[in-house]
Amino acid sequence: MVLAAVTLTASAQYKSQVWSPDNGDGTYTNPVINADYSDPDVCVGPSGEDYYMTASSFQTTPGLPILHSRDLVNWEIVGYALKSLYTGFKPLEEHFSTPQHGAGVWAPSIRYHNGEYYIYWGDPDFGVFMVKTRGGNPAGEWENPVCVIEGKGMIDTTPLWDEDGRCYMVNGWANSRGKFASVLCVRELSADGTRAISDPVIVFDGNGTENRTCEGPKFYKREGWYWIMCPAGGVPEGFQLAMRSKSPYGPYEHKIVLQQGKTNINGPHQGGWVHTKYGEDWFLHFQDKEAYGRVVHLNPVDWTTGWPVMGKKGEPVTRFRKPKANEELRVNSEKFATAIVNPVESDEFNSPVLGKQWQWHANYHQFFGMPTAFGTMRIYTHKLSEGFKNLWEVPNLLLQKTPADQFMATAKLRFTSKADGQFGGIIMMGHNYQALVVRREGRAFKLLVITCQDADRGKPQQEELIATLKPTAEDKIDYKPGIHEDIYLRLKVTNAEAGAAHGGKPLVSFAWSQNGKKFTDCGGQYQMKEGKWIGAKFGFVAAETNPKVDKGWVDADWIRIEPLTQR
């Protein structure tokens, strides 16, 4: 099963034009993934050659992304562990059919045990959940989730299977639900990891100390010691703790093993430690980059003092040598050299399956849209509720993570409208959002820049008219004829340095074209802002305000992610 996943990885090599950490000379530059994979965790497969990572996905679906690497530097998305939230739990499936911003899957952990991969996470509103592979292939199918412990407030869960077969779990607590936090608890689970068989025990208390906001714990055992590694001190300003005990229930002694120090890498913490078959130790963690989200860094780990000192003497590295890896792996008599590969971004929409870079803003329904046999991705207009103010609660936003500090995304699309008020285009979504859309008005289309500040607070969106466009095609035979607009829409993100006049924040701007060659800038520059616990995300929007008419739709022919240019 693992070899099949390796074959898939070796045959699908996507190299980003906007961010690739592999320098091609045996070194890498952090971040190894310059995209929002918040609260990453990693484990190594039984071959010792394959590493698998997952991360928080909150309310977006599919959820629990699965990324694969053979060297901890070059990563690609190979699948998702959750098709929806939560299959098999009908009330919860319905609950997540609309966007529940910031809820859902928090800080998962991934482990390999007894021939299968397991992922545990805490949903702060519903309990502790677990999902495992079906057949041991993390790039393949996963079983439906199991509720391990029902209840509120439990987050950031990690299991540990001991040598004697007993299973323990550590977790943190969400103050927003339970009104207490900054403590870590350990309890025993059944040997199969499906239910709690003991009450929790507080094993660490950060209240009233520099270790406030201790959360995100990961549980390990090394040379007879039980280890809990966790962040503390807050998110952007915090640090990484390591703590050890001879008993899973403590007491634990602790030390700071990674902190910002003199670097510009803030809050280096919350991630996963991995020991490789080549005798090396590494730590994957996040850095909070606000509007860009929480990006993934890789740091070496030195155990010579008996403690896991991370980075360079406890401070994160920017450029470092790559981990040792097998440069050539033989699978079915074929050789696959390690190659530069990055999470996919651009999409030609030539597959009948949705690309792995895309997520919906809520549980998917086929009314949202679907791939076509014609080399396009169709997104149908969502019926907006009465009293609509902005797009914060629209579930059919089809979005992906920002892949770099600056980039340009150009989409070729056709918008088909059956009635007035239907609109579609591209969007950068967060607490603030910006969109470039075409909207039907009579027998024409209005090209509009839409902006909204504090969308999460129900603030109304604003519109700026850019141009009035004639339809590029009209139906002549359909009993409910539509009109069509073929157009190229472009979104540009400039980095924080370029946005220094705006408080150092990244800026979004738009351009459009009718021939794909000459683009006209439109609107202004807008401050990009993160969403609820996630970075800003960009992609497609299609909606309308008339509940009685037939839907319109966006047919996206392609979207291409390129370096920022002025063309």
Give a verbal description of the structure.
Strand 23 (328-331) and strand 24 form a beta hairpin. The chain starts with a helix and ends in a 5-residue tail after the last strand. Mean pLDDT is 93; it is low at 1-11 and 330-337. 4% of the residues lie in helices and 44% in strands. It contains 3 helices and 40 strands. With 567 residues, it is mainly beta. Strands 25, 28, 29, 31, 32, 33, 34 and 39 form an 8-stranded mixed β-sheet that branches. Strands 26, 27, 30, 35, 36, 37, 38 and 40 form an 8-stranded antiparallel β-sheet that branches. Strands 2-3-4-5 form a 4-stranded antiparallel β-sheet, covered by helices on one side.
Mean pLDDT value = 93
- Major β-sheet, in short? 8 strands, mixed
User: What helical percentage do the residues reach?
Assistant: under 10%
The poorly predicted ranges are 1-11, 330-337
Specify the structural class: mainly beta
Number of DSSP strand runs = 40
The fraction of residues assigned to DSSP E strands is: 35-45%
Categorize the overall geometry: globular
Number of DSSP helices?
Answer: 3
Supply the key terms:
567 residues; eight-stranded mixed sheet; mainly beta; single chain; 40 strands; globular; disordered N terminus
